[in-house]
Amino acid sequence: MIEIGGVKPKSSVFLAPLAGFTDAGFRGLCAQYGAGLTYTEMVSAKGMCYGNRGTDALLYTTPAESPKAVQLFGSEPEFMYRAAKDERIAKFDIADINMGCPVRKIVSNGDGSALMENPSLIEETVRAVKEGFGKPVTVKLRAGVRQGEPLVTECAVAAERGGADCVTVHPRYREQMYAGQADHELTAAVKSTLKIPVIANGDVVDALSFWRVKRESGADAVMVGRGALGKPWIFSLLNWADSLEDSFVYDGSGNVREDAVRAAAVKAHEIASHFDAKRAAREHVSTLREFLPDRTVVNAMKLHLCHYAKNTSNAKEVKLAVAASSTIEDTFGIIDDLL
Ligand SMILES: Cc1cc2nc3c(=O)[nH]c(=O)nc-3n(C[C@H](O)[C@H](O)[C@H](O)COP(=O)(O)O)c2cc1C
């Protein structure tokens, strides 16, 4: 089982940071379904230093999450150090540094994936966060910037040199944003180069893709992002998938065996049919109301409700009702009547 600088996650399947989605309510549900480690969405180091409104909400957690990671973004070692030292993040077990965000507003400030063009700054940044945080520090990387020009191994080596305890590889280039396929041969290259553990991220949406990514990358753990939206139960499925013997899952050539594919379909159906979306959504809302005003909760739940309703017969109705919702009563109405 993966260990990150002495931190022992509950399983080897983690929930990825997803800005706008991985709020404390959603993270708590995923943790209950077996996510071994959860990450906050990215939090601005400078924003923390300048007392930005909104930061505290991003840092809110519930006891369900344990262990838990906070993700910081920024590229000025001094601000990263100060943010890492901030007592508001002392409750987290791990501090992760975002070096993958492709969004122009972030990159143009030298943050997120812009760091991948400057390995010596990666090293310095990791060192600064380690010094400030005093606990394990991890880094989340992409394949590189321009398609076909991988930078990830060099950057991962720089992170390791700076003292990183683990790296996550999302092997898409910045140019690709979230389109195309993740190339987990690049994750495998990182895994075979580093001494610290490596987490594979990208395109895991079910047991089959989980098995493929694990095999292709050789990584120590797998991180799931979009595949968890509306389906916090996916962690239960993937922990099951992870518990099976390799000889049951793979044939002699490393391909997933038909028996395993069939078993996974049965298991997914069983777990999904036990999922009570109404109850999950109510719990989600109730956690958000612990730290957000109702009008913010209504907005935060809009996309989540659509995801909870996805692939149900009410998906369209939920979309329409969500678009028209403006009060917490509207939100509860959708949950009670349509989920
Ligand atoms: C809406 C959205 C928000 C995201 N926010 C973050 C973020 O805050 N920090 C981060 O490191 N990655 C972020 N990502 C990237 C994901 O963590 C992940 O690397 C990517 O979605 C690939 O994994 P997946 O195929 O399992 O979704 C975001 C992705 C999406 C789609």
Strand order of the largest sheet: 1-8-7-6-5-4-3-2
What name goes with the CATH superfamily of the largest domain? Aldolase class I
Question: What would the CATH topology of the largest domain be?
Answer: TIM Barrel
Per CATH, the architecture of the largest domain is: Alpha-Beta Barrel
User: In CATH's first tier, which class of the largest domain applies?
Assistant: Alpha Beta
For the secondary structure, the number of strands is: 8
Q: What's the main sheet like?
A: 8 strands, parallel
Low-confidence stretches: none
Element pattern in H and E: EHEHHEHEHHEHEHEHEHHHHHHH
Query: How many domains?
Result: 2
Helix-strand makeup class: alpha/beta
Ligand catalogue: flavin mononucleotide
Sequence-ordered SSE layout with sheet pairings:
Layout: E1 13-15, H1 24-32, E2 38-44, H2 45-49, H3 55-59, E3 68-73, H4 77-85, E4 94-99, H5 104-107, H6 119-133, E5 137-144, H7 152-162, E6 166-173, H8 184-193, E7 198-201, H9 207-217, E8 221-224, H10 234-243, H11 246-249, H12 258-274, H13 277-289, H14 294-309, H15 315-324, H16 328-338
Parallel strand pairs: 1-8, 2-3, 3-4, 4-5, 5-6, 6-7, 7-8
This protein binds flavin mononucleotide (FMN).
